[in-house]
Amino acid sequence: MTTTLVRPTEDAKLRVMKNENWTKAVYETNGLNLWYGTAHALKNIDLSINEKEVTAIIGPSGCGKSTYLKTLNRMVENVGDVTISGNVTFMGNNILGKAMSVELLRSKVGMVFQKPNPFPKSIYENVAYGPKIHGIRNKAMLDMIVEDSLRKAALWDEVKDRLNKSAYSLSGGQQQRLCIARCLAVDPEVILMDEPTSALDPVSTHKVEELIRTIKNDVTIAIVTHNMQQAARISDRTAFFLNGEIVECDRTSTLFSTPTDERTEDYINGRFG
Amino acid sequence: MTSIKPTEKLRTRDVIAAAKKNEKFGKIIPHLLLAVTSVTVLATFGIIYTLLKETFIFFQEVKITDFIFGTEWAPFSNADQAFGVLPLITGTLKIAGVALLIGVPFGLACAIFLSEYATPKIKKFIKPIIELLAGIPTIVYGFFALTVVTPWLQSFIPQLKLFNALSAGIVVGIMILPMIISLSEDALSAVPASFREGSYALGSTRFETAIKVVFPAAISGIAASIILAASRAVGETMIVSLAAGSTPVFNMDFTGSIQTMTSYIVQVATGDAGYGTTIYYSIYAVGFMLFLFTFLMNRAALYIKTKFREEY
């Protein structure tokens, strides 16, 4: 007996999340303020992240760019004493409200971290982990998701013969692509990337950038980076953060060629930061 | 020490060089430490030697196969004295089995709560209480088993004897809790936070993360903690001497009096068995058996901890 398996492109959960007020912007942020204890880390942030675009967030260390990214999937709350005010909507749904389930939100919004952090499990189990915890048990379905995700992450050919080997047998660059595959396996709307190439060598960095370029047809990406050339190479729009505020946000080509704010110009020309 | 001080002509590096030359004491220290260490090593060998020597004498009087495979332990019987160790091993395993049945689930649940759920504030409150549990003398545990746990169990298990394996085993289980909790919690806490973040970021709950990511990553340390606790339960003496009785039986009954290897040794050592009798030598043979048990378990714990450690 043969069964045809069709990968669901739009499941019930997603339809629930698509609110009527939803526009092209996947994320809308209005007047977002965030404090760590008494330290004011984000000040009046207004920013939208558009569907199927790569939005780069640049700025010097400590400017709040990672904090902002972690607010988008509410990982920021794990830090401890955090106070948030303002409005952040994901596909028209307020994500800061009590009604929002962080588990549901995070199943729609993946995250790739600065240092590759695969689980101490096999390559296969790493990719299958997300679908499994969200209720997919069918082995054939899981096999298909794993292969599909690894292909999208441009890792399939390198690992297809050793799927049961530990993820830690891979190189750093491969591990990071595995982490991207792990995100893709739950078919997210958005992937948040927090300096995903800062721990990688130039060749691995190039591969990850290539990968971002291909997956952006499918998924919205917000990427925090220290590397301005990277922002210029891969992003459609760029936001420049400084001391917890957004100084400027524009099309990447515009922001890098004709910045309107003097501080942006100074930063992208390497005069500070 | 040296009295040379840096002057315009003498640079600091010269003063240091001069001071180094005078450092005689530093050269003796390794030798002193080695001497102290040798005492420890000698003591270990001394104990093992005594154990082996007396055990050897015992086996000249009792056949080793009768000892290992014998199902009757009757050293005090004048008519048919028998030295089959299996009843004592059965008794010991009953205690250890009940203890693990209590200690492992409770201990691991506590460890997961402390490492994955508890806020620093709650941790600060609970940890000293668990350490308090570890500080209670075993004689007190034994008394607790005899005067509290047994009567309480008797209220719903009427056939339970005054001395029984069940309540002693339960209390040994409580006694090994702090060990399982603290070693397992160390293993869980040593799992890098980045794994948890990776799991949360995929939409897992705290519980899924604890069970499917953190626990497997810490499994070698947890397994080692369980084996060490089992070894501790096997070697436990005071609780079983007080609450489990002194009847060497070879059966699967948990409600009656039993005898463990340790409580047999106590019985003979505190009794009036004469020096040089077979009974006297038998406690060395039983002691050696006990030593083998705990030694092998400790080695197994160490092996598991290093061999099956997750690479990350």
Q: What would your notes on this structure say?
A:
The complex is a heterodimer of chains A (273) and B (312). Chain A has 273 residues and is α/β, with parallel strands linked by helices. Chain A has one domain: P-loop containing nucleotide triphosphate hydrolases (Rossmann fold, 3-Layer(aba) Sandwich). Helix content of chain A is 36%, strand content 25%. Chain A has 11 helices and 10 strands. Chain A has helices spanning 12-17, 65-72, 102-108, 123-133, 139-152, 156-159, 172-184, 202-215, 228-234, 252-257, 262-268; strands spanning 25-36, 39-50, 54-58, 82-90, 93-94, 109-112, 190-194, 220-224, 237-242, 245-251. In chain A, the strands form 2 sheets. In chain A, strands 6-7-8-3-9-10 form a 6-stranded mixed β-sheet, sandwiched between helices. Chain A starts with 11 loop residues before the first helix and ends in a 5-residue tail after the last helix. The model of chain A is unreliable at 1-16 (pLDDT under 50). Chain B is mainly alpha-helical and 312 residues long. Chain B folds into 2 domains: 12-61; 74-307, MetI-like fold, CATH 1.10.3720. Chain B is 72% helix and 1% strand. Chain B is built from 13 helices and 2 strands; from the N terminus they run αααββαααααααααα. A two-stranded antiparallel ribbon of chain B has the order 1-2. In chain B, β1 and β2 (82-83) form a beta hairpin. In chain B, α2 (25-61) crosses α13 (278-307) and α5 crosses α7. The longest helix of chain B is centred in the N-terminal third of the chain and has 37 residues, at 25-61. The radius of gyration of chain B is 26 Å and the shape is flat. The two termini of chain B are 47 Å apart.
